[in-house]
Amino acid sequence: MNDRIRLRKQMRTRRRDLSRAQRDAAALAVVETLANERAFINARHIALYLPNDGELDLRPLLHHALAVGKRCYLPVLSIPFHNHLWFLPYRAGDALLANRFGIPEPGLDKMRGARKPWALDLILTPLVAFDAAGNRLGMGGGFYDRTLSYLRRRRWWRKPRLLGSAYAFQEVDALPHEPWDVPLDGVVTDQGLKGIDRRGA
C-alpha cells in the first residue's frame, strides 16, 4: 500500500468516526468563517458540493449562500461530460439524483443554467488531505484536477477562487505534488481559513 492510499484510508476513517454533534459544529463554524470573508462576500456565483463519505458538510453554507442572494451550483459527474465536472444551478427544494457514486446532484434538465469553472467566482472543493502549500489529496478520481486543468497554464488567476474544505485534522506536513495537480488558494476548516499565496511560490 503506497503512502497516498494509506493516507486516504486513515483520513477517511477518521472523518467517518466523527459524531453527529462534531460534524454539525464544524459545518456551522465554516459558515461563520466564510460569511465574513471577502472571497465569499464578493462572490456572485459559487460552486459547493454535497457531503459524502464523512466529508465536511457544506449544506449549512449552501443554505446561507442562497439566503443572501448568491447563485449556487453543484458539481455534476455524468458520462456525457467525459469525466469532467459540470456545475449546474441549485435552488432550495430542487430535486436531486444520485450519481454513480451515490452522491446527489442536479438533473441534466438544469443544463441550460450550467456554468463553466472560469465563469464561477468561488469553488469549494472536497478533499481527503491538504498541506500548507495548497496541495490537495482527493479521492483519487481526478475529477477536479481534470476540470480545472486549464489553470495549470497560468501562474495565478483572479477567478475562480479555489478553496478546499476540510476538518482541521486533515492537514498534513507535506503532500507529493504531481504535474497535473491544481493548487488551492486556501482551505476553510472548522478552525478558520488558511490562505495560500501562490504568487510567492
Structure description:
The protein is of the alpha/beta class. It has a single domain, classed as 3-Layer(aba) Sandwich (Rossmann fold), CATH 3.40.50.10420. It is 23% helix and 22% strand. It contains 5 helices and 11 strands. The strands form 3 sheets. A 7-stranded mixed β-sheet has the order 3-2-1-6-9-10-11. A two-stranded antiparallel sheet has the order 4-5. A two-stranded antiparallel ribbon has the order 7-8. β4 (96-98) and β5 (104-106) form a beta hairpin. α2 (20-34) packs parallel to α4 (59-67). The longest helix has 15 residues, at 20-34. The radius of gyration is 16 Å and the shape is globular. The chain starts with a helix and ends in a 6-residue tail after the last strand.
Terminal CA distance: 31 Å
Determine the number of helices (DSSP H or I, runs of at least 4 residues). Answer: 5
Order of helices and strands: HHHEHEEEEEEEHEEE
Low-confidence stretches: none
Number of E-type strands = 11
**Helix amount:** 10-25%
Strand content: 15-25%
Task: Determine and state the CATH class.
Answer: Alpha Beta
The main sheet orders its strands as 3-2-1-6-9-10-11
- Give me the CATH superfamily: NagB/RpiA/CoA transferase-like
**Main sheet makeup:** 7 strands, mixed
Average pLDDT:
89
- CATH architecture, by name, is 3-Layer(aba) Sandwich
User: What is the CATH topology classification name?
Assistant: Rossmann fold
Shape: globular
Structural class: alpha/beta
Radius of gyration of CA atoms, rounded to a whole number = 16 Å
Number of domains: 1
